[in-house]
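Student: I would love a firmer grasp of how sequence relates to backbone shape in proteins. I am handing you a single protein, as its sequence and its fold in token form. I am told such tokens are a discrete way to write the fold. I hope you can help me see how the letters and the tokens relate. Take your time, and here it is.
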Amino acid sequence: MHSSHHGINIEALLAHVPLFNELEKEEIARLARGTREINATRGDILFHKGDTPTGFYLIVYGQVKLAFTSPQGGEKVVDILPQGQTFGEAVMFTDRPFMVYAQALADSLVLHISKAAINEELDADPRLGRKMIAGLAMRLHQLMNDVESYSLHSGRRRIIGYLLREHSEDCENKIIVTLPTNKGVIASRLNLTQEHFSRILHELSEKGLIVVDGRRIHIADVDQLRNYDL
């Protein structure tokens, strides 16, 4: 894993981030000066649990997993983050060490935006503060949904919810979902063992609700899948 300042236009990348799209050119330029580029190969650790944050991260491309290790040595995946996502802001504002570790699940380009740079812009531009609060609030909402789902919903419902997470009511009823990463990581994200996860996928295929083709899951009838097990 290496950091560099060459080869990519950090200002152009920052300007494309929804979080920063109301900032002026000179504000973006100031942020860029407090930003470093991290080229992570699959498997690289971006930070360990217990590290002290010096800023937050933005995934330009690739995929990052946030997780912690249980005392028994098992891993609990907290989130699987796609490109365009930022992470680590909440901890940066609390001045506490990271509670999770971050690992690249694929070769990734990540930007590290320093705390000093972001604080300076927060002082200068209240719109940025409002957007960051909105982003963190969305994540808190998602976390509450997760807790509700782990507590109240069967493994089957969790998996169905996950498969249909990006499907809105007005979409096609026949879809193909591509799992973003391997089944073990997704199972852990849904608070299931890998065996339980595979067993439910198998059951849904036996019932003809899904066809599993590697990471691609073919769903012939979304409504039928959604209403299964209700």
